[in-house]
Structures are given as structure tokens and as C-alpha cells.
Amino acid sequence: MSSHRIDLVKYRSLWFGISAVILIPGIIGIIACCVRFHAPLKPGIDFTGGSILQYEFAKPAPVEKVRDILDKAGFPGSQVQQATVAGKEVVVMRTKAIDDEGQKRQLDQKLTSELGPFTMLSQDKVSATVGPELLLNGLVALVITFCMMVAYISYRFMFDYALCAIAALVHDVLALCGIFAILGLVLGTEVDSLFISAILTVIGFSVHDTIVVFDRIRENAKFVGSKGVNPVSGEEFRKTFGDVANDSVNQTLARSIYTSLTVIITLTCLYLLGGVTTRDFVLAMLIGIISGTYSSIFNASALLVWWREFKLTRKPKQPKPA
Q1: Rounded distance between C-alpha atoms, residue 25 and residue 114, angstroms
Q2: C-alpha atoms less than 13 angstroms from C-alpha of 107 in its C-beta half-sphere
Q3: pLDDT digits (tens, 9 = 90+) for 18-49
Q4: What is the rounded distance in angstroms from the CA atom of residue 121 to the CA atom of residue 103?
Q5: Which residues contact 1 (CB under 8 A, 6 or more apart)?
Q6: So what's the pLDDT on residue 256?
Q7: What residues pair up with 120 in beta bridges, in sequence order?
Q8: Which residue among 60, 138, 195, 235 has its CA within the 20 to 30 Å range from the CA of 281?
Q9: What is the enclosing helix (H) or strand (E) of 322?
Q10: Which CATH number fits domain 12-38+131-314: 3.60.20.10, 3.40.50.300, 3.60.10.10, 1.20.1640.10?
């Protein structure tokens, strides 16, 4: 047993405390969003409805300049990106619903005066009825995912393993949604259908990491009750389930961190150097991967140890033989 290792059982209150520091403000932010936006997070165009405009400018139109014009014209938070349609470079703008023709003419005049003439290729309106359908489908996918994971992990491991894994996943989803709720209140960050994709991707990554740790705990569970030696005092002791979990986490720690770091480095580069339209999606992935790595290593295993110890304390004592 190496002296340089994480004592999972000893410091589990710290691991749970760190999670509480992250989750409690996030839950408060979600409640505040429900009051302010009537939704857990600030909804984007996919959920509230809006307009999609495709303009072909005679001269190059910088995305940031177009976004500034939209903000000044009364369309803050609009999504702007450059795309190629039928071999032509066009600017695609996703704004809140434009129902007033006068407002549309005013926007076109500002764009013309600052960026030059353009040709309108298309103007489509996204119905707000799509929002509830997307949200419902996302929630259904989330519930199905959880149920299938509980069934699979219960089959491959044990039911308490499954419950602890799901608790870690709920932690990751709450952490991600809570941070985005706060960003929505402070910075006006909106969520769209890509955010649901990010949540489902994070769940898949997190449960994969958790299963790796749990699989090692299951392999080492046969050593519960065997003799161990304290590396500091040199005293012998009988290994408990917590000792086995400690050893298992430390055996998989380097692998989990290295695997997550490769993903985190890639996502960081995409966030810093990628386009504006995918930045929130990449940020959601980045937050989720970091949270998922943390919960898989510390929360899931620590929760499993706590549950096993709790069951031992509740186990009825055997009557002494007469």
C-alpha cells in the first residue's frame, strides 16, 4: 500500500462538502430562473420561438459587427454565424420572433447603412410550440437513460452500485444546470437543443468513468477481511470495505485523470479557438466532464462506502448462543 494515496473514507465529508458548495448556489440559481424566466434555465430560440434570417452581403460582413447591430436594434442575445449556402457566403441570424414589419425594415436599414447592400435569401419563423416538444423529448431521453443504466449496473454489479452511480450522475446534471442557470441570470446565457445533447454526452462519459472505478472495487472486494499493513505505523489490520475502496480508487486514479485531461484539453482549445455558435455547447461539455470526473472518483465511491457502512450499523445483531 503506497503512502501517497487518497484516503477516500477519511475525507469523504470534504468531498461531499465541495459538491454542496457547487450544487447549493446552482439550485438557488435554478429556482431564480424559474421565477424570472418560468423555466429552470434561460431558454433559447429553440424553446421560445424566433426568426432565422439568411442574408448575402455584397461585402464581407464580420460576425461581431452584425451581432452589435442586432443588439442595438433591439435583438440582444441573437446568434450569428457565417455559412455557405449553394456556394455563396451568407450570414445566418437567429433572433427573437420578428412580428412587426416596421421593426424588420429598421433592422434592414441599419444593416445596409453599416455593412452595405445585401440580398435576403430566406426568412423563416421558428414556432414556439417546438420548445415543449424538444424539452419533453429531452426529459424522456434522460429518464430512459437513467432506467437503462440502473438495470445494466444492477445486472453487472449490485443494486447499491447502481444507485450510487445514478446519484453521481444526478450530481453532474445538477452541477451543469446550476452553473448555466447562474450564467443565464448574470450573463444572459441561453440554452438550446444542443444543451440537451451536451447533458446526455456528459452522462455517458461520467457513467463510463464510474463503472471503471466500481469494476475495480468489485474485483478487490474479495480482499475485505484480509490482512493489511499500515504504511506509517507498520501495524497489521483487517481490511474493511472502505480500505478496499480506497485501494481501488487509487489504482484507477491516474487512468481516470489522464483520460479526462485529454478530453478537457481538446474542449478548452475548442472553447478558446472555436466559433461563437458552439461556445456554449463546448462550455457545457467542459463543465460536465470536469464534474463527471470528480463525482466518479470521489462522490460515487465515497457514497458506496457510506451506504455499506450504514447497512452494517443497521444490521440486526445475532443473538448469543445459550
Answers
A1: 42
A2: 24
A3: 999 999 999 999 999 999 888 888 887 777 77
A4: 19
A5: 228, 229, 231, 247
A6: 85
A7: 55
A8: 60
A9: none
A10: 1.20.1640.10
